[in-house]
Amino acid sequence: MVFERELMDTTKSEWETRRDISSFVLSESEIASIISRASHAVVSWVTKSNQPVTAVMLFAVVDGLITVTSTTNRAKYHAWRRNPSSSFCIWDPENIGKQITLRGNVKISQDNDLLREYTKYFLTRAMGGKEPSKERLEKELATFLAPDRYMMQLLVDKTLSHDLDSLLHRERELRNGDKQS
Asked: Are the beta carbons of 115 and 69 closer than 8 angstroms?
């Protein structure tokens, strides 16, 4: 028993970095940059029997809110109507180790103006920052205009982030005997 405690004490610095990851976070500007560059999020909801479900969804930022869309034949629509709690995980498109988890509640509305802004946002992003022509926007909108199309916006209560590169850098420092941050 004493030997086990001694072993744990001598390896503390090796495991402590991954146990307490609270210092390996992204700055507010990094979070904003990732959200503006990313196109997809892993979104969550729970079933009637409280089973967790996730899916990857295209998102847009409209009026400062993470926005997705769906129709009433999808499970997430019914789940968010019952329980609007959700989390959205967004990662840096160039480095999946930089991740953001946004927790909050989904607000559901049927709003063609919001759908237009959503569509314009994702087309502009897909076209490298160039806004679509009116004709291109209308053509894309036609694919979304189902009578049961709804818009969902995440009202964020909490933002968490993780910077795996910083964690790995710190582990390398510890392995190399450099105890300074």
From this structure: yes
> Cα 178 vs. chain centroid, distance in angstroms?
34
Residue 67 neighbours by CB under 8 Å, 6+ apart: 59, 60, 61, 114, 118, 121, 151, 152, 153, 154
With CA atoms as reference, report the closest residue to 53 among 33, 81, 79.
79
Q: Among 177, 168, 59, 165, which residue's Cα sits nearest to residue 118?
A: 59
Mean pLDDT by groups of 10 residues along the chain of 181 residues: 48 57 81 95 95 96 96 95 97 93 97 96 93 96 94 97 77 69 48
Mean pLDDT of the chain: 87
d(CA 171, CA 131): 44
Cα gap 34→39, rounded to integer Å? 9
Amino acid at residue number 104: G
CA distance 78 to 71: 10
d(CA 50, CA 73): 19
